[in-house]
Amino acid sequence: MRSKWEKIIGLPVAAVILFFIIRNLMSGLGEIGRYDFRVDGWRVVLAFGVFVIVFPAYAGLWRYILERFGHRIGFLKSMRIWFLSQAGRYVPGKVWFALGRVYLCEREGVPAATASVALGVEVLLVLGSSLVVFALGAVAGSGGARFPCPLALVLLPVVLAAVHPRFIRAVLRKLGKDTTAFTLTYSKVLMLIACYTGCWCVYGLGFYLIATSVSLGAGDPLVEPAWTFTLIRRLSGINAVSWSAGLLSVVTPAGLGVREGVSSMLLGPVFVRPYPSLIPLVARLWVTIAEFATIGIVVFARSGK
User: Cα–Cα distance between 15 and 223 in angstroms, integer?
Assistant: First the structure.
């Protein structure tokens, strides 16, 4: 049961997070209001359905990483920790996301030091797998503009080296962290990279559905015709790397502006204007509403117990 002080402090924090989430939504609505476009409702509904798969998968992978540090948490509890800490991304400064994750883990008996190291490993794997997906998009078959293949040849070896347990332990030691509880082998790390890559691909399918759900009138929105599977791979790579760019932005809430800027730049060779500017705005609303809804479900489900 939460103490009186936890409730008193928690309410203002929740209010601040809610304020930034709503401001994010209003900002997106204001920006897309400049465009006269139509929306394919069924594609939008299917895109929201993507989060039914992706969100629990991310939470499950976080739970697995935490187990490798010797702390087992129930799946529902790990989902609650992951979902609620995600809300902290909407407050400027990524510190709120990290503090929220560590605090919620402490309430489940996980030491703050262990939770922070596990979070660092999760972020590294998420970023590394996003580069893998971006590299796969860089060699996405023929037809239409595509990213240079040499980029993929550079990214993949860098990612595989950066996620090696020896490298991770060396970085953690430099940061003064205890690595004795870190039991991930390289094979397990590669398995996690593969799982996160799969999550990015599913997430990318949702981004593809959103990108192709908007139309500004007659005419093909693509610069050059492309097969559907090829387009999904390209858009998955763009979504993954732009999301990671937003994650690395410590000033803007939820990567606001940074994610859209990177996405618009990379969408330029794929879609005709002004689609590269419109699609990231619609995608931002899609993600914010989905995250807001799932966070609300978790909060109300908890309060009802």
Answer: 44
**Domain spans of the chain, in order of start:** 4-303
From CA 39, how far away is CA 131, in angstroms rounded? 30
Neighbours of 93 (CB within 10 A): 14
DSSP secondary structure letters along 103-126: HHHHHTT--HHHHHHHHHHHHHHH
- pTM, 2 dp: 0.81
Segment 66-102, tens digit of pLDDT: 888 888 888 888 888 888 888 777 766 567 778 888 8
Q: Is the CB of residue 129 less than 8 Å from the CB of residue 115?
A: no
Please, what is the angle between helix 41-67 and helix 75-86, to 10°? 120
120-150 pLDDT, tens digit each: 888 889 988 998 888 877 655 443 334 455 5
Give the pair of three-digit tokens for residue 144. Answer: 């239409």
The CA-to-CA distance between both ends of the chain, in Å, stands at 11
Tell me which residue has tokens 């419109």: 278
